[in-house]
Amino acid sequence: MFHCTPLELTIAAPPPETKSRPMNRTLLRHARVEDVDLVLELIRGLADFENLSHQVQATREQLQETLFGAKPAAEVVLAFEGDESVGFAVFFPNFSTFIGKPGLYLEDLYVRPEFRGRGHGRALLKHLATLAMERGCGRFEWTVLDWNESAIEFYRRQGAEILPEWRICRVAGDALDRLAVSS
Asked: Considering 37, 155, 166, 170, which one is annotated as catalytic?
């Protein structure tokens, strides 16, 4: 799997309405196996924010294998402000049959609530957009919860088009077992 070198971004000065906030630096780097506990902590923070903590089944051992084992299923970029972790992005390749090119799919983007509005989310998105371009991707896409208006507006400001005509289909757990063995 292609991994780029760590990237450090200096976030531009905040917009005029937030001038009271200091300018921040976002340090981004790809997660390493020794970051597995931090990744799990951020997953739990995201789940808590989305009121979905009851759905988190991931364990340290699972993440070590699925993210850092012989065949990683996804990549993780961690965001830091100074020495403090502020968020992460989990992503993996996909493919568009219509455009005939690979794509980059963002599974999760999360910035801890106390660090929002400081440019860290934008730094993560910009980094992934750069990776998508470097990897020859035809698109970079993700989903957003319909109730998360602040995220929807943030994504629109970054140039994302919200596609209301598409719905997520998911088969998991017992339903996945049944579908797999159905005749």
From this structure: 155
